[in-house]
Amino acid sequence: MEISPKENARFFSNSTVLPVDRSSFRSESSASKEKQSCCGGIKIFLGALSFVYFAKALSGSYLKSTITQIERRFDIPSSLVGVIDGSFEIGNLLIIILVSYFGAKLHRPRIIGAGCLIMSAGTFLIAMPQFFMGRYRYERFSSTINSTVSISPCLQDKSQTSLSALEKSPAKINAGCEKEAGSSMWIYVLLGNLLRGIGETPIQPLGIAYIDDYAVEENAALYIGCVQTVAIIGPIFGFLLGSLCAKLYVDIGFVDLDSVTISPKDVQWVGAWWLGYLIAGAISVLAGIPFWFLPRHLPTPESRKDSSTSSEHSKFILEENKDQRKSHQQQAKIAEMAKDFLPSLKNLFGNPVYILYLCASIIQFNSLIGMVTYKPKYIEQQYGQTSSKTNFVIGLINIPAVAFGIFSGGLIMKKFRIGVLGAAKLSLGSSFFGYLLLLSLFAMGCENSDVAGLTVSYHGTKQRTDDEQALFSECNSGCSCSRNDWDPICGDNGVTYVSACLAGCRASNGSGKNTVFFNCSCVGTFESSQSSSAVVGPCQKGNECPRMFLYFLVISVITSYTLSVGGTPGYILLLRCIKPHLKSFALGIYTLAIRVLAGIPAPVYFGVALDTACLKWGSKRCGGRGACRLYDSSALRYVYLGLTLVLGTVSIFFSVAVLWVLRKSSSPRDETLSANGERGACGTKSRKDNFVNTDLLIQSTYWPEKETRL
Fold this sequence. Notes:
cell membrane; disulfide bond; Growth Hormone, Chain: A; 26 helices; OATP; two-stranded antiparallel ribbon; Solute carrier organic anion transporter family member; 7 strands
């Protein structure tokens, strides 16, 4: 059968058209699937990373909420608690360079997953001492523990033997010291926090870089912003969890709670601090699971394949088919980068704006870190609030104010298109007015509680002394009392006595929290006393204290907001006043300096300073000084607020110097153009250069440990 040329052409035409159509359809389908896979993969990673940010922020803020609980449980001073708090930064610094550099060469999601496991292991380790130390033992008179034994607090009858005397026999002392050896287990808390810092290290640098590599370029800012928003939510739940656990007794589930004779208002009260760490550790484990199933690479979005920007990870991939010449070129490039290190460092520190802003930031973060670390302690001791209520108000009021301040700072920068000089002014203004508001808190303190022998004499005259001999007076001279005990009772005259024995009480009725002491000779001799009875527990602060606490909260919230407004402008100032190729290096030096010179030392020397305001120290069973039981309210206020304000004032002087240098180095025309976004006062040449890259702009809402700044 012959086929005509016309039919032959039609045949070949049909046979060639069909494959082309199928190929085109297959190509479109493949592209659609790749886009869906890319979007789905990056969104899964985004959700997992957001959960990790929430977990690390929660555990970090929970540690801040348990500072006073740890101090009392392990009977250690504030300075030692500061060392424990700073160990997180030490752990972070140990491996941050290794993780940031080598992490980009390896499987980044799995490194983040491994970091979560290490972080959870450290969190669990912090809670472990609770299960090996034995039960918490606080100082209480025997009749408040066991109603079947009738023992007079003031031992006039030598046939009566106090429980404390029985415990001080050589055998009992040795047994007690072996038991108290567990108090050195605070070292495990320190190691756990150190381990937590190591585990947290890869989350931020590798997670943010992974999103920036594989997200569609216009979506990267939104994704990173979502992660940072979740990071702000974490501390709210952390402090609320701290509030809940502080209400529960430390040995809940192990002892009969009806036998506990102290209340959350007592300075010896220790909440279930360990319970929150178990919860936070479990959350960290759950947060790390998804990363073990995420791919090493995601499909590169179509919009970024032809882009000049390549992923950070791709720069370190060594393909099998690379020839030897490319390997030598890479080695030469690394050697050239190493050679440029010292000149780059010299260039960076030769920038007066950068070095002045770095000094201002270091000093300001010393102020903020110290203030935030001991804020719960300050509220408890100054205003007589419980740990539970303190953590609740910090989590529900202060942290949202910080988040709103950060958002407001970025919004102001965007809406008014503020340039470099304007950013410097806004940062300086927020710091100035923030510390000015903080100055007003000096007038919002409470007077010392009346404690016989410490803040008031046994005859009613005001005094302040930490001399333990002042605890003894004629009214209790016939009693066999210990100066080391802290078992406060409240007399009918409104005065707190360190113990029932030192109050001269000769009889008691009831048991536990309902114990009432009678015939207290020191209570009866007080000028304003009408009876000589007393009840268990310290007396409440003065009537003006609740009102002062309310004023403190209002000013504290406004101060937190005001200081936070300047965070974003200051960070933008830092980025715009350095050469573009030095931005990453400058940010690394900035973060390193903040952590080493502020994050580690500030909690330690703040703790040492606060210890100087202590009037009555607790004593350990084997001898030695324990945790502070009573602070001088006025001295505590002046030390805590004074140190914060002095550091803040010094940082403001450096900020003024930054503004002066900027004004000196920029002409009026530069300032005008900078405000329009065309030219910055630090020498940026175009509008494009005046605004930072997407990832850096979003990270401008972040600074070291922002999640715990109040």
